[in-house]
Design brief:
The chain is 29% helix and 17% strand. It has 4 helices and 4 strands.
C-alpha cells in the first residue's frame, strides 16, 4: 500500500492453522466461550469456523491522494470484528490495527522484521 502499487501475498494452510490464527487475531467467531457445556455449540462451533476451504482475508482500501488506509477483516467471506474500537465499522484505520498488533507482539515478547 505504501508503494502505491498493487501487490498480493497468499499463504495457504490447513484448519489447524486457521483456527489458532483467527484466535490470535481476536476474531469474534473464535473467541466465544461459555462455562455451560450444554450450550457450547452456540458460542463456539468448529464446523462453522473451519468449513472446507476456510479462509481469512484482510482487504485494504485507500482513496486516491489520501494517506488514510482502511482494512476490513473477513472470516470465510463474512465480515468480522477484532477487539479494537473503530469509527467506521466494518473498516478499521490501518494505523490503529498496526499499532494494536505490534503492541500484542511486543507484550508477547516476540519480534518481527520488515522487508
Amino acid at each position: 500500500m505504501s508503494s502505491g502499487g498493487s501487490g498480493i501475498r497468499l499463504r495457504f494452510g490447513h484448519d489447524d492453522v486457521v483456527l489458532p490464527f483467527s484466535y490470535v487475531l481476536g476474531f469474534q467467531e473464535s473467541t466465544g466461550a461459555t462455562d455451560d457445556l450444554e450450550t457450547l455449540h452456540q458460542h463456539f462451533s468448529i464446523f462453522r469456523l473451519i468449513p472446507m476451504g476456510a479462509n481469512i482475508q484482510w482487504i485494504f482500501y485507500r482513496k486516491l491522494k489520501s494517506k488514510d488506509i482502511l482494512v476490513k477483516f473477513l472470516m470465510n467471506e463474512n465480515e468480522t470484528s477484532i477487539p479494537l474500537k473503530t469509527d467506521c465499522y466494518p473498516y478499521y484505520h490501518w494505523k490503529d490495527v498496526e499499532a494494536y498488533y505490534r503492541n500484542m507482539i511486543k507484550e508477547a515478547n516476540l519480534s518481527w522484521q520488515t522487508r
